[in-house]
Every structure is written in C-alpha cells, then in structure tokens.
C-alpha cells in the first residue's frame, strides 16, 4: 500500500480548511528587554496590551510598562497558530507569570544584552519559569553589540547554564528576526512532540 501525503489546504476542495494547531508561547524577560515590541512586530492581529504609566525606577527606562500581559497571534507556521503572551517584567507582577504559564507549550526569554542588570534578572526569571515546568525555550538577546555577539551569547548561555545553541540575537523591532526566534522555538516543540 502506498503511503499518501498528509492533505494540505491546496489539495482540499474549495472552502475546506485544515484546523491549525494552537501553540501557546510565553514571552518573558526583564523590564525593557523588548517583550511587547516583539509581540507587536510579529502579531497578525491587533495586540491586546495592558500598559500603564511606569512609576518607580521603571519610569527612568520607559514611559509605559506592561502590568498584566500582552497578547498577539502569529500565523507564520503553515500548520500552527501561535498565541504569544507577554509577561510583565517586574517581579511584583510575578503572579501573572504563573497565570500566563498555565497551558504554555514553550517560553521565549528576552534579555537586554547591553544591560548587566537585565542579564542578572533574566536568570531569576528563567529559573522561576523552569521551576514551574520544564518547557522548551529559547533566549533572545536584544540591544546587543553585533561585534561581540558570540561572546555575549556564550556569556548569557553560561550565566543561565544552558547550551549556547538556545541563545539568539534578536532585535524585537524586526519582524524577520523575531519570527526567526519564534521559528527556532517552534522547531524545538515539533522535535519534542
């Protein structure tokens, strides 16, 4: 018996569509790492944001900050609808980290590669999430110096005690770089499914 290929939408009668797999990814990281920006750059639907005017030391970094979550949907994978849930970066909102992690398939950690405090904080956030469950993840370095990226990747990988292959340069303002980061995580999800 010949093995047939899986149907795709181009081989189905007009008007019939295949159901896409829904994938839930959490986008986590310190304040000002680029979580909201990444979601806005890749979302194919209007992004739901819960931004408020920043206060305390966060106001020195930016005018607005996420206080609950950001949500967007990306259709970049032919077989999947990727739902992105961005977390607040401040520890005082860590109860939202736990809520948003429920049912997640993977995590994107973002870190500001130009800020030593951000690198230290992503370690705390990384450990927090992985204590909850051992989800597949990748790390994106925003605001990095391209000339020293390999050293930066190695330093961040060493700091998190993870393989350097899980760490990528990612300008969250760039849809193509952000989608490449998401694709690398999606490939890990497919490989472990």
UniProtKB/TrEMBL annotation:
Which domain of life does this protein belong to? Bacteria
Q: Which UniProt keywords apply?
A: GTP-binding, Hydrolase, Nucleotide-binding
Which Pfam family, giving just one, matches this sequence? ATP_bind_1
Q: Where is the signal peptide?
A: none
One Gene Ontology MF term:
hydrolase activity
Name the InterPro entries for this protein: Gliding_Motility_GTPase (IPR052705), Gpn (IPR004130), P-loop_NTPase (IPR027417)
Membership in a protein family: Belongs to the GPN-loop GTPase family.
Query: Which PANTHER family does the entry link to?
Result: ATP/GTP-BINDING PROTEIN-RELATED, GLIDING MOTILITY PROTEIN MGLA
User: What name goes with this protein?
Assistant: GTP-binding protein
């Amino acid at each position: 018996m010949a093995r047939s290929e899986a149907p795709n939408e181009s081989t189905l009668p007009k008007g019939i569509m295949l159901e896409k797999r829904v994938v839930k990814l959490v986008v986590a990281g310190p304040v000002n790492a680029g979580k909201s920006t990444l979601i806005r750059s890749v979302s194919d639907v209007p992004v739901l944001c819960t931004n408020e005017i920043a206060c305390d030391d966060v106001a020195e970094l930016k005018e607005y900050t996420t206080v609950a979550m950001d949500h967007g949907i990306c259709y970049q994978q032919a077989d999947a609808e990727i739902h992105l849930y961005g977390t607040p970066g401040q520890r005082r909102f860590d109860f939202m980290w736990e809520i948003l992690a429920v049912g997640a398939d993977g995590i994107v950690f973002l870190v500001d590669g130009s800020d030593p405090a951000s690198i230290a904080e992503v370690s705390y956030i990384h450990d927090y999430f992985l204590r909850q469950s051992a989800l597949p993840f990748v790390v994106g370095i925003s605001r990095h110096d391209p000339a020293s990226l390999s050293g930066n990747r190695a330093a961040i990988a060493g700091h998190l005690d993870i393989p350097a292959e899980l760490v990528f340069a990612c300008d969250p303002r760039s849809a193509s770089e952000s989608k490449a980061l998401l694709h690398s995580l999606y490939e890990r999800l497919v490989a472990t499914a």
